[in-house]
Specification:
The structure holds two protein chains of two kinds. Chain A has seven helices and no strands. By secondary structure, chain A is mainly alpha-helical. At the A-B interface, helix 2 and helix 7 of A face helix 2, helix 7, helix 8 and helix 9 of B.
């Protein structure tokens, strides 16, 4: 339970916080939602990046969110903690996940070669979208943690974090 | 930390900076530009308090670019260098910073560094000085400051050297400035 009261009629704990400023919340959803709606990166990769960063933060409120249209299979979701060794993950995904794990607490230590490997995998526009996405995922975990936002019920599938949906 | 750009400019003739690099993703750039302008345009939370939080984020994330930029709207609200100089370790005992600014800085540290720093007393202080709408605006701003500073740093867009630079505050209809 958050230490800050929720905005009235909020659709989720995160919207209960940011919804105290409804106009800015709507604009934020356009920005964050573009990552998913515009398919700037493969949504399944985005989902893996989001969950990997949430795991680094041990952020239960983020970890229980499952975006139903991300395309991430249940098998890969279940194996995500073992991405280094599981056959389900290809070399490009491993490069991206290794980089994402460093964003929360080691962003200044990321090397040119690590960045080049992600850029080689995703292309230059993809690397730009990736850089914004992983940094936003990190920041949103931190928001959930500092506000003590409660996790949603576990196991439910949710619409994508979309400009047209809601922030779960 | 690299000061060599890891990505090229998406705008012909311009060097790589946050705005020109985001041009590789024009939809993302457009939504960020609109959101950032709306955030700074809103007066629910004063520009001075927003800038206090942004300066703290710049120091903690080691974003030299962010640290050397000043927005004119905050300057017009009295955020001079004597105040900025106090946004460092030990700010809790500053005689220059107001209690509201110290509460904002504690929330900032908790969000961008360690949530355990926001003790019950710190939560109470924040709620004493800021309304829920102001705390929401602060949190949204910090989300953007932190995320874009990390994106800037990891894309190698940190300058080797930079003088202090006063820029117009982001506003609707203007392209993304090379700042976060």
């Amino acid at each position: 339970m958050s230490w800050l009261e929720s905005a009235p009629k909020a659709a989720s704990p995160l919207e209960g916080y940011l919804g105290h400023g409804p106009a800015l919340l709507a604009q934020f959803k356009q920005f964050y939602g573009a990552l998913w709606d515009e398919r700037l990166l493969d949504p399944a990769l985005l989902e893996m990046l989001r969950l990997t960063i949430a795991k680094v933060h041990q952020c239960d409120a983020e970890l229980v969110v499952r975006h139903e249209t991300s395309g991430l299979s249940d098998a890969k979701r279940a194996a995500l903690a073992d991405w280094r060794t599981s056959d389900l993950f290809d070399a490009g995904e491993r490069v991206c996940l290794a980089y994402a794990e460093r964003i929360p607490f080691e962003h200044t230590a990321i090397t040119d070669s690590e960045a080049a490997a992600v850029k080689d995998t995703l292309g230059e526009p993809g690397f730009v979208a990736f850089s914004v996405a992983v940094s936003l995922f990190d920041a949103l975990c931190r928001v959930r943690l500092v506000l003590d936002l409660e996790p949603l019920p576990e196991g439910a599938l949710h619409p994508p974090a979309s400009a047209h949906g809601m922030l779960r | 930390m690299s000061t060599s750009p890891r990505v090229s400019s998406g705008i012909p003739g311009e060097p790589p900076h946050l705005g020109s690099v985001l041009a590789h993703q024009p939809v993302l750039a457009e939504h960020f530009s609109k959101l950032y302008a709306a955030f700074w345009d809103s007066d629910v939370l004063s520009a001075r308090l927003k800038e206090v939080a942004r300066m703290r984020n710049a120091r903690v994330t080691e974003c030299g670019f962010c640290r050397n930029v000043r927005f004119d709207k905050a300057l017009s609200q009295g955020l001079d260098e004597a105040v900025v100089d106090e946004i460092t370790e030990g700010y809790e005992t500053s005689e220059t910073l107001s209690d509201a600014e110290k509460a904002v800085l504690k929330f900032t540290d908790a969000l961008i560094y360690d949530p355990a720093l926001l003790t019950g007393d710190a939560q109470a202080a924040l709620k004493r000085h800021l309304s829920p709408a102001q705390i929401a605006e602060l949190g949204l701003g910090l989300t953007l400051f932190l995320a874009m500073a990390k994106a800037l740093i990891t894309m190698g867009l940190e300058p080797e050297q930079m003088d202090r630079t006063v820029l117009p505050t982001p506003a609707a209809g203007k392209p993304v400035e090379p700042v976060s």
